[in-house]
Fold:
Amino acid sequence: MVDGERRLRACRLPASGQTTVRAEVRLLSDREARQIVLVSSLQRKDLNPVEEARAYRRLIDAGDAAGPTEVARLVGVSQGQVSSRLGLLELPQEVQAMVISREMTATQARALNPYAKHPGLVAAAAVGAFHDQEVGL
Structure:
């Protein structure tokens, strides 16, 4: 089973009153199955932006998508959104953790991307360590 496991489990509950479940049986390559699973996961509403970015990266790294444009086509979002999310993965783990915990929005984190080559500076900025101080690069 590639997709719909939650629906199937829900239909098995006595309270559902369901006696049949509509299903589609197809032979899939490993690549097609991975794509379906990742796209299905990405369409869940409870993913945070970093999890979303990691899923996009998995599609690309597995060779299931050539880059952000193809990921966007597969998932049904804009190429800009895919690129923005992937940019979060360039930030230090501390910043990613703040996005995951909702201490910082993805938009706020993306503003730090130009400084990603200076992880100490980015982490300091993310935790508000230098408020109004000037920081030299």
In short: Residues 129-135 have pLDDT under 50 and may be disordered.
